[in-house]
Amino acid sequence: MKAIVCNAFGEPLTLEQRPDLKAGPGQVVINIEAAGVNFPDGLLVAGLYQFKPPLPFVPGTEVAGTIAEVGEGVKHLTPGQRVVSVNMLDGYASQMLTYPNLVMPLPDGIPVDEAAGLITAHATAHHGLKQRANLKAGETLLVTGAAGGTGLAAVQIGKAMGARVIACCSTTEKLALAREHGADELINYTEENLKDAIKRLTDGKGVDVVYDTVGGDNFEICARSMAWNGRLLVVGFASGDIPKLAVNLTLVKGFSVVGVFWGTFTQKEPKVFASNMAELFQWYLEGKVKVVIHASLPLEQAEQALKIVADRQVMGKVILKP
Fold first, then answer.
1. How many domains does the chain have?
2. Is the Cβ–Cβ distance between 112 and 83 less than 8 Å?
3. 148 — pLDDT class (breaks 50, 70, 90)
């Protein structure tokens, strides 16, 4: 097998040839056909993420492919079966050794490339809007970074849940993509004052739910633009700036600030996660959500893939193909 390896934080990644994996008792081996690239992957290899795995390690959290081998005691998975898997590490490779509870059968009708991009971004948006925000039909949802992987997913899922969606992006091209995928209103914050635009589009009421993937200066503007009983979801910091919150705003405006850490959610609430994924798969088959692939690159170009995502050049998802 081949794998992309991080040997030192902040240093170039290396492509290594390794022995093929073998499944032990209660384990499975997946032949990876596609792996999703996510913004946190870049933070991880730079040593800037919330946790630092022991070195060396193989980055990558979401994969799609087929079962190569199952170990003793694994009953519900069989060799050759199409699957997706989510793991904290080991996705940037041609094979992954993992456990059955982290593997889900992939329904027919979902291409493997899109399946690899459906897990982290869409599942984060789904968990954030459903469990953390309790988004209701008819509410207003503002999505920052609305053309990125999880931002675009939030636009789609917000519409599927019946919300009025306001997409916030930095370019006309990105906004056009958000509109194509269901956004009702558009804000180009490089051309229009964000606070004024939110006030105009909500008739001064403010936003019920903000799905913020960017952080930075716009976070405070969003905090000052919340509706009563609103929920401001902290999803990520693509701007590179972790903002500070004037907590008196939550008092006088009566809104909640809610963290969305999907990785921990999958570990602490695996049954809810599985239910969420079943709903996402069904929405995909019904055409309510779709994975937009910005680029599919060979595994050897993992560094380039991470740079594209880190530079916020992506509209949709970047996929690696072992």
1. 2
2. no
3. confident
